[in-house]
Amino acid sequence: MHPTAVQLQAVASLAARRAGEHVLANLHRRGDVNSLLRTDVKHKLDVEAQEAATAVILAAFPDHAILGEETCDAPLPESDHVWIIDPIDGTINFFHGLPWWCCSVAVRLRGQTVAGAVCLPEMGQLYEATCDGPALCNGAPIGVSATDRLDLAMLATGADKWDLGEHAFRFMRKISEIAQRPRILGAAAVDMCLVAAGRLDGYFESGIYVWDMAAASLIVERAGGRCSTLKAYPRHRLSFLATNAALHDACRAALLPLLETT
Length: 262
Fold this sequence. Notes:
Radius of gyration: 17 Å
CATH class of the largest domain: Alpha Beta
Structural class: alpha+beta
CATH topology of the largest domain: Fructose-1,6-Bisphosphatase, Chain A, domain 1
Number of domains: 2
Order of helices and strands: HEEHEEHEEEEEEHEHEHEEH
Number of helices: 7
Distance between the termini: 43 Å
Helix content: 25-40%
Strand order of the largest sheet: 3-4-5-6-7-8-9
CATH superfamily of the largest domain: Fructose-1,6-Bisphosphatase, subunit A, domain 1
CATH architecture of the largest domain: 2-Layer Sandwich
């Protein structure tokens, strides 16, 4: 018998919290990196936080598969359940001392996300959802905004680290044209949780990864929003849009043409 969504959610939330607690206890190691590039930081705490989350999951479900950002090239064992971990989303924010980062854990049953949790340790926030329950922040229900005019919307986005030139900035130009304000906050899962909580009206990025959005997209949808993969690429990469329900079609129509040549 498969575990229930509530049982899976409890483990997802615990795993995200444990990962966050480990990182929070090691803030003095912000500079402890394996590699430091202009476009990315590979942090030792990324590896350790994923190990902390993995230990929680495997203690509860030893036969489940785990897809983690730090081990994404490893083959997955056969399992109906696949857990998806982003140990630190917003690593560059974390490295520089900004508190805008999170630990994200989701679980999919035969490809469908059934539970997810996003923990913002320095902000003291835990976002969670199951496939058949409400979206929550610190246990209280949340919902997307009611903004229905794109010209009055605040949309978050990001610069695709694979191409910080014209490719990335044409998306920023388009969002600047259609929205009231664009914002780049630097952590995809956090941005999507803000959409779920009604503090942003939408989020788009031309190149993120499945571990960036697996938990947060479920939270957006259970908060009344809509999510779309606008384009899929190899190696778990995708272009992704998350908005409140009223703005989704307009955002999608504005952004899809820019992806036709990528």
